[in-house]
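Entry 12.
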Amino acid sequence: MRFHVWISVLLVVTLAGAAGCRKHAETAKGDPLLTAYDTEVDWTDAQHVIPLSYEQAQGKRIFYQQCVWCHADATPAGPSNRSNLTPVPPLLNDGATLNAESDEYMLNIVTLGGTAMGKSAMMPPYGRMLSTGEIRSVIAFARAIAQPSYQPPARAGSQYSAK
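Predicted 3D structure (tokens):
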């Protein structure tokens, strides 16, 4: 009789433990921040945190090393140089401006610089400093933090287009 009681108790404890694990796993799937590689605080709403994939996180790292000085209002060291430039470059999260540009166009302007693409000569070419993969990561980061949110086009733009 004791043996049957022990088996029953063991079975109940095992089933309760399994049910607890399953419930925890379901909660983890629902929250994108729990599966994010990194996060970025929304520049327009400090209460909102944006989950980043690995590629986007790599873009964030490069952005804060190379691009933050001109494409953000604040840097890790204080105010940016953005307001001293003419024309004033867009913020990296400026979806109203950057969402209209194709990934290939953005790749070209970062790689070749503003002059080569008919834009500001203040935008230097990064093609010899950054790899194509690193530039694509910065673009992925820009897409992740864009306000309004980025919606991919139905058809990709040409990499040779000037716009």
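Annotation: The chain has two domains: 1-30, 36-145. The longest helix spans residues 2-30.
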